[in-house]
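Tokens help. Our protein:
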Amino acid sequence: MKKIPLDFLMFNQKSGNGKVSINMKKSLCSLALWLFALTAMAQSNIGGVVKSNTGEQLVGANVILSGTGRGSTTDLDGKFQIRNIPAGNYTLRVSYLGFEPMTREISVPTSEQLEINLESSSLLTEEFIVYATRATDKTPTTFTNIDKSDISKLNLGQDLPILLNFTPSVVSFSDAGAGVGYTGLRIRGSDQTRINVTVNGIPLNDAESHGVFWVNMPDFASSVDNIQIQRGVGTSTNGAATFGASLNIQTDTRQEEAYGEIDNSFGSFNTRRHMVKVGSGLINDKWAFDARLSQISSDGYIDRASSDLRSYFLSGGYYGENHVVKLNVFSGAEVTYQAWEGVPEALLETNRTFNPYTYDNQVDNYRQTHNQLIYTGILGPNWKANAALHYTYGRGYYEQFRRNDRLSNYALSPVVIGGESIARMDLIRRRWLDNDFYGAVFSLNYLSDDGRLDAVIGGGANRYDGDHFGELIWMQFAGDVNIRDRYYDNKAVKDDYNIYAKATYEATEGLFVFGDLQYRKIDYTFEGINNDLRDISGVANFNFFNPKVGLTYQPDPSKTWYASYAVANREPVRRDFTDSPIVDRAPQSENLQNIEAGYKRQAAGFTYSANLYYMKYRDQLVLTGQLNDVGAYVRDNVDNSYRAGIEVEGAYQVTSKFTIGGNVAFSRNKIEEFLEYIDDYSASPFVQEVIVHENTDIAFSPNVVAAAILDYRPIKNLEISLLNKYVGSQFMDNTQNENRMLNAFWTSDLRFNYAMRPRFVKNMEFTLLVNNIFNQLYEPNGYTFSYFLPAEGATGRELVTENFYYPQAGTNFLAGVKFLF
């Protein structure tokens, strides 16, 4: 180091007025400037951009200075910067999934802006795991892709339906009102039972109800790499039929570098989330292991609508040059206090958080564990294969306190005490579900030498084995029942087979022809006593053929036109079979014919797309108010109904700091003729009146759904986002009666994301999400029923309508901090 001359440090004597002499001031200033320059020389920054070998900027690439613990990830422009690096020689390592990692020797300080180009990896990537069930830019269907970075910005412990709220045509809701616990979504007005969901190509929908219970998968979003939402019928997939949309989820893919993550968040209603995640990175270029452990709790917005949720995700894989074998095990356990009944309309203005349940253990208690063994490999120069074995085990119950219930509902005789016969009493019951779901899925892909033909053959075989039973665990007075006695018990076995072949062929330059043929077979057997004490034994068999054809035209890579026609068929759900033996005819399968046509455009600074759709249903199953012989409401087929609309989405980068984006859907959703059955208690004996309705709106199908997102980055690493959602009015039944309607609503959320890179961690991120900043009172979900009663003080009758709503929370917040190691 350069020595400082001794006379440089000498000071002149003070002058008579006591002030430091001019020479002394000059000396101090010179010393300060010299020390500043020395420090500046000792600490430097390096920066640059990471691109693919085709020139594409790679977002989220890892850039590490080996042996220092210092690093960065590339931003939306593929750029990176590592600050405050001591002078010296270093090895820079750059890695990105699907590309060969690269090292480069660099010397610091340097003024050079590095440009790093990565070559495509010779290792087989995991993208092919979901390839067979995914749409590509050459597939003539309507879809939206959501990547991990989009999910993580909002992921503070709420379920996936809430995180997907701002995607096109989506309406999400929560029973507890705060996004934790039981949640759901509708896409184009189709509920969760009509939305096909797969995880790594493996079916997730419950085989009997066709529903997806996200509460059984707490914090699953933390283990999701990307999601594709296909609207309409989409491409052939595994599991339940796609009757409105499909969600194709891929879980975390391997990371090149070892990592650790700690994520904690808290918020309104005593909401807490704690998550720990670790990964080995790629060991010896062959092996990788990942693990996550999560715990979420919340009191909920609705009274007593608490949630206690726990989950884990484990993954390990072998990654060869031509073969990948991966094992995923993930499990969730939930205990949620029931908030299923909703808030009566009469209390909506005075007690929005009302919950009729007060028994302290009125809970839903369920655990579900998924096991997936996945193989994907290259079989030759033109062939790739994917196969998976899966097994899911679920077991749990919901517990209910029943006040003054009839013993006859439980096949019990009256209890006689002191000569008095007691036929009704307080009791507590548990209704159990113990089920197994297992099977295999596969796909085989052929890509011609010239790349013009891309063909896939695939399918799956799955079995569901479910045991439904009920127990009485307490009675006000001892009856003739033993512990673990079952007052109902029934079993169901459902086999679901499908095989499909799909191909895309480039007929001429930029013109792609698409074809997709699927055959699906269902064998469904159920036997035993249902919870209403009826024998529900029966067998149902279905054979479906689901063809799809379409064209895609790409005059250049930035423009895409597409059009398609697709057919889907769907079997009735469990309740349609168990409730149907008493009605005039058994439930029929449903048929959907779907036309999609659209245009996509990408250019510097902006992207947009627009699509038209027409979905014509035949024999759609809907609630009509009709009763079976024990008073349960059943669904019936309506002959003709349809959904038609236009969806537009886009994003525009106004400046380097400001981006706007959003989507809007306008639709018309109609039933040609609907028969409403209304209970008439004014008549003796009891009857049901039938009212004919024509050309009415389909329930829960708003004519307008829109979202707008404004992103502003005032300084580096800080992002401020305003998220807006509008949902038009929607009816709770198919009568288009304005007295049975959910009002339109507009909500706005404000999100702050800030990232920093202190020395002790790789990355540190802070997130603050303020939901519903304008404190709007709204209800996105509800239900209704009507009946006639004798008119008071006069002859005749009056119509009574009871509406129940699921209010969502007013202004509330979630805040989180994430450490990446």
In short: The longest helix spans residues 22-42.
